[in-house]
Each structure stands twice: as C-alpha cells, then as structure tokens.
Specification:
Elements (H helix, E strand, L loop, with lengths): L8 E12 L6 H7 L3 E3 L7 E5 L4 E5 L4 E7 L2 H17 L11 E10 L6 H7 L3 E2 L8 E5 L4 E5 L4 E7 L2 H20 L2
Antiparallel strand pairs: 1-5, 1-6, 2-3, 3-4, 4-5, 6-10, 7-8, 8-9, 9-10
Length: 186
C-alpha cells in the first residue's frame, strides 16, 4: 500500500516591511489634511495611515521612516508605499527617492494536512510552549528556520518570523520533517 502524502499548503497573509522616505514628514499637517489618518502624539509618536486598496496600514514617523503592514505580496507593499508618497504630494511634500523596502516579518497560515496530538508534541518537541487552558495552540520555535509556528490539533498552522516566501516554504518543510520524526516513534 502506497504511503499517503500529507495535504499541506501555506499562504502568506501579512508582510511587515520598513522603509525610509528620506525626508522629514509634517505629521500634524498630514493628519489635518488627510481623512484616512490617525495621529495622537501624546500616546504614540507615529501617524497611522490606512489604505483601502491594497488593504494596508502604515506607521509614518516625522523622520520619514515608515512601517507598512497588511500586504500579502511585495507588489502590494510597493503599491501602498506609492500611495503614501502620492498622499504626501497633496500636502506639498515631494519624495524624490525610491524607498528601499526591507522585509521585517512574514506571517503565513495553512495546514500540515494531518491532525496533531498537541499533548504528545509538547513532550516530544524542543522549544515549545503549550498551555491549553490559556490558548488552544502550541507554540513551536523552530530555531534552524528562524521561524515560530502556532500548531493546532486540526493541523492548521500559522508561521511567523520568516523574511521571504522561500524561507516560509523551507520552514514548513522542516516542521513537517520534525513532526514525522516525533509522531512515528511509538
């Protein structure tokens, strides 16, 4: 009988990037002029701008540094940053550089294609946190892949900490390899 291959898949659901517009940004003026912004300097020094399409949010600091979150592809990240630059042109701030985007974190979710016994995994895997009374998932830090996984008993997973799509898939391969090692030993 042929061994059944597990149905596994993973999709990027959020890319967090940082960049710099290399220009001082008048946050007060932005907040007063643009409706899709929130700025409360007593609570936080950055301005939040929400972009409808692609659905993203960005933190903008007066130094010109930005952190953008919510995009699912790097193309959508670049689209969002272009829209931020266009918004700044409305308040006469001309950005002349093409901002260099640095991926800080990728969040992906999917499935390993098999049910997981989290109690067994908590005892057999290293670098895990599992407190079912607090949270139904097991946290597994996969140091070799520089990734952290949330594992659920139905086989659903969330992966965070990677910085490229290739790293996401590589981390998933390592995770499945480790799961196979610890689940086949009886």
């Amino acid at each position: 009988m042929a061994k059944k291959e597990t149905k596994r898949d993973i999709k990027i659901v959020n890319i967090v990037v940082s960049s710099s517009l290399e220009h001082d940004i008048p946050l007060e003026k932005m907040a007063a002029t643009l409706s899709n912004t929130e700025y409360n300097p007593e609570q936080f020094p950055g301005l939040v701008i929400r972009i409808k399409e692609p659905k993203t949010s960005a933190l903008i600091f007066s130094s010109g540094k930005i952190v953008c979150t919510g995009a699912r592809t790097i193309e959508k990240v670049n689209e969002s940053i272009k829209k931020i630059i266009k918004s700044l042109e409305k308040i006469n701030v001309k950005i002349t550089v093409k901002p260099v985007v640095k991926i800080q974190n990728i969040v992906a979710s999917g499935s390993v294609g098999m049910d997981l016994n989290l109690n067994v995994l908590a005892t057999k895997l290293r670098d895990v946190e599992y407190e079912p009374e607090q949270f139904p998932g097991l946290v597994y830090k996969l140091k070799e892949a520089k990734a952290t996984f949330l594992l659920f008993s139905n086989g659903k997973i969330v992966c965070t900490g990677t910085k490229s799509e290739k790293e996401v898939h590589s981390a998933l391969d390592m995770l499945i390899e480790n799961l196979k090692k610890v689940t086949k030993k009886k």
